Amino acid sequence: MSAPITEEDFIGSVADALQFISVYHPADYVAHLTRAYEREESPAARNAIAQILVNSRMAALGRRPMCQDTGTVNAFVSVGMGARFATGRPVDEMIDEAVARAYTDPDNPLRASIVADPLFARKNTGTNAPAVTHVRMVAGDKVKVSVAAKGGGSENKARFAALNPSASLVDWVLKTVEGLGAGWCPPGLLGLGIGGTAEKAMLLAKESLMAPIDMTALLARGPNDKIEELRIELYEKINALGIGAQGLGGLTTVLDVKIGTHPVHAASKPVGLIPQCAADRHVSFTLDGTGRATFTPPPIEIWPEIALGGESAGRRVDLDRLTREEVATWRAGDTLLLSGRLLTGRDAAHKRLDAMIAAGEPLPVDLAGRAIYYVGPVDPVRDEVVGPAGPTTSTRMDPFTDRLLDATGLLVMIGKAERGKETVDSIRRHGAAYLIAVGGAAYLVAKAIKSARILAFEDLGMEAIREFVVEDMPVTVAVDTTGTSIHETGPREWRRPVIGRARDAAPVV
């Protein structure tokens, strides 16, 4: 019989794991993303992947979060029937304490994103707890824990369908992925759960994302069964859609496709689909009563040496002297380097501004001729002026954009992913522009921020309106004043047919 697992060993191990995954990509993700970078032919997508890889290496060296959205904690705990805990506390309660400990660590604070009331007050808990915890009893006398930190952008793109048994899974997946847009920050992974019941299918999809990434090896050796055949077919056909990194158009949208299955009622075929963004964060460990888990960082040599200077260079823009005439010269796909004063604001701030405009109240900030960045940064530590500060998904601001442009004279918006058709039309009508920063490059972006101060709505925490002073912050014009959107033109240019069955295709290395 194994020794009892102490409360401190369990809580400390989970807290250490959450700190670890905030900083380090799994080595298999880095390897597959590096291969995607090496084979990418789209200049915009290649530059985006380069930024993600450089950001990943910088986060590892700086021991700071790779992404500003440090996620909802998902914990899967398999308790052996013979395992013993030296505590009477419930497992989920101990997980929540570990989350609070990890996310408020003064050496590397992580962003608290969880709101306690999902319907009304939506007040931030301040600790990122509670987690979403799943416990199962298994054979053995050990406890295995798998933790993941799932970002809101990719989690919001989760989909479920109750397909007829005769319906084509491949057709549904392709149609669904094409409709997801880029808000889930590709290139990443796609998890599929098939069978069981509705909740089981979604759970299978989520758990599948923590399996090792092995698509390169699978393509090289060929499939051994029908599930592997299906994985390859979906991998090839999804990438053939041409969505590409950040939705800019390119060869790689997914690095791997994972599939979990469960027996199902004869009348049913439930399917869960959950994408995993470029911040692929998860780790597993086992406790046997001999002490807390240890985590070894991957060697820095796994990251490629990439110099961004030549690829990310673009037209320099002075935000303090920005004019409508200058914005009109930008074209979708242009790379810009922004310097000067930059406002921030996202969901909660936009909702307040919209309500104030509707009520005829004066706004706390003047938006005329300004640029606003959709971001909720991590708190700074030591000599930082701000923590990792990558963009959030811009479509959540779409309901407020037309009124804001019309009432304030706002000129430029910066975020990630595409905008809706009505918002693109509004941007065109108002002679404004929408720019994107690379999702998954939060630590890199933060290095371009030279000062930060809160201007309004301090009670909103990470969603408060701030003013950054930035220097050479790299962005891409996503929607220009003519209404041309790179998220439409890019994938259309790079979409390609799949030749023959995917399992017969030459390995991609």
Blueprint (SSEs and pairs):
Blueprint: E1 5-6, H1 7-23, H2 27-39, H3 43-62, E2 72-80, E3 85-86, H4 91-103, E4 132-138, E5 143-150, H5 152-155, E6 159-163, H6 169-180, E7 188-196, H7 198-208, H8 215-221, H9 226-239, E8 254-264, E9 269-276, E10 282-287, H10 309-312, E11 315-318, H11 324-327, E12 335-344, H12 347-358, E13 371-373, H13 398-408, E14 412-415, H14 421-429, E15 433-436, H15 442-446, E16 449-456, E17 465-479, H16 486-494
Parallel strand pairs: 1-3, 2-4, 7-8, 11-12, 12-13, 13-14, 14-15
Antiparallel strand pairs: 2-5, 5-10, 6-9, 7-9, 12-17, 15-17, 16-17
Helix pairs in contact: 1-4, 2-3, 6-9, 12-13, 13-14
Q: How would you describe this structure to a colleague?
A:
With 509 residues, the chain is α/β, with parallel strands linked by helices. The chain has three domains: 1-151 and 298-313, no CATH class; 153-278, no CATH class; 314-492, Fe-S hydro-lyase, tartrate dehydratase beta-type, catalytic domain (fumarase, Alpha-Beta Barrel). It contains 16 helices and 17 strands. The strands form four sheets. It has a five-stranded mixed beta barrel with strand order 12-13-14-15-17. It has a four-stranded mixed β-sheet with strand order 4-2-5-10. Strand 14, helix 14 (421-429) and strand 15 form a beta-alpha-beta unit. It starts with a strand and ends in a 15-residue tail after the last helix.
Characteristic key phrases:
alpha/beta; single chain; fumarase; 4-stranded mixed beta sheet; 5-stranded mixed β-barrel; 509 residues; 23% strand; 17 strands
